[in-house]
C-alpha cells in the first residue's frame, strides 16, 4: 500500500515508454507488421529483428516443437515477451527452478539477473514477440547447478 500526496498530477503517458508487456502485446496483435518476416527453421529457433528505436528492439521468434533457448540471462537489458500462438514453457532459475506454461496472449518480463530457459514443449509451432530495453538483444549462457543455482 502507498499514499499518493495531495495535489499529485497524473502525467500524460509517454507512448515511447509503455510497459514492455504492453508493447509486446501491441506488436503481437499487429501481425501485418511482421508476418512477412516469419519463418520456421528446423535447425534452430528462428529469430529476427522486426523494429529498432533508441528505446527498444522488437524481435520475432518461432519455435518448432522441441526447440529451446537454453538457460541464459539477457545481460543488462530488461524487457518482456508475449506468446502469439502455440505454447511455450519458461523455466525461471534461481536456486530453484519454477516452470511457467504460457499460451497465446500471456507474457513474461525480465530484468538484469533474470535467468531462464524457454522452450516449446507443445506439439504445434509457437510464435512469440520479444521487447528488449536498455540495449540490444544479448544472451549469456548458464548451466543449472542444483546446489548453487545458475552458474556461468
Ligand atoms: Fe530469454
Automatic annotation (TrEMBL):
<dbReference type="GO" id="GO:0008198">
    <property type="term" value="F:ferrous iron binding"/>
</dbReference>
<dbReference type="InterPro" id="IPR010300">
    <property type="entry name" value="CDO_1"/>
</dbReference>
<keyword id="KW-0479">Metal-binding</keyword>
<comment type="similarity">
    <text>Belongs to the cysteine dioxygenase family.</text>
</comment>
<feature type="binding site">
    <location>
        <position position="72"/>
    </location>
    <ligand>
        <name>Fe cation</name>
    </ligand>
</feature>
<dbReference type="GO" id="GO:0016702">
    <property type="term" value="F:oxidoreductase activity, acting on single donors with incorporation of molecular oxygen, incorporation of two atoms of oxygen"/>
</dbReference>
<keyword id="KW-0408">Iron</keyword>
<feature type="binding site">
    <location>
        <position position="116"/>
    </location>
    <ligand>
        <name>Fe cation</name>
    </ligand>
</feature>
<protein>
    <submittedName>
        <fullName>Cysteine dioxygenase</fullName>
    </submittedName>
</protein>
<keyword id="KW-0223">Dioxygenase</keyword>
<feature type="binding site">
    <location>
        <position position="74"/>
    </location>
    <ligand>
        <name>Fe cation</name>
    </ligand>
</feature>
<dbReference type="Pfam" id="PF05995">
    <property type="entry name" value="CDO_I"/>
</dbReference>
<dbReference type="InterPro" id="IPR011051">
    <property type="entry name" value="RmlC_Cupin_sf"/>
</dbReference>
<keyword id="KW-0560">Oxidoreductase</keyword>
<dbReference type="InterPro" id="IPR014710">
    <property type="entry name" value="RmlC-like_jellyroll"/>
</dbReference>
Amino acid at each position: 500500500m502507498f499514499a499518493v500526496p495531495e495535489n499529485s498530477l497524473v502525467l500524460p503517458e509517454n507512448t515511447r515508454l509503455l510497459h514492455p508487456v504492453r508493447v509486446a502485446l501491441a506488436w503481437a496483435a499487429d501481425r501485418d507488421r511482421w508476418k512477412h518476416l516469419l519463418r520456421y527453421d528446423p535447425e534452430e529457433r528462428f529469430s529476427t529483428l522486426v523494429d529498432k528505436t533508441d528505446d527498444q528492439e522488437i524481435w520475432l521468434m518461432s519455435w518448432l516443437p522441441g526447440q529451446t533457448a537454453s538457460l541464459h540471462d539477457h545481460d543488462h537489458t530488461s524487457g518482456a515477451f508475449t506468446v502469439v500462438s502455440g505454447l511455450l514453457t519458461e523455466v525461471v532459475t534461481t536456486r530453484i527452478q519454477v516452470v511457467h506454461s504460457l499460451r497465446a496472449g500471456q507474457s513474461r518480463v525480465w530484468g538484469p539477473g533474470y535467468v531462464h530457459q524457454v522452450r516449446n514443449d507443445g506439439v504445434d509451432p509457437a510464435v512469440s514477440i520479444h521487447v528488449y530495453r536498455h540495449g540490444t538483444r544479448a544472451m549469456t549462457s548458464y548451466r543449472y547447478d542444483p546446489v548453487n543455482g545458475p552458474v556461468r
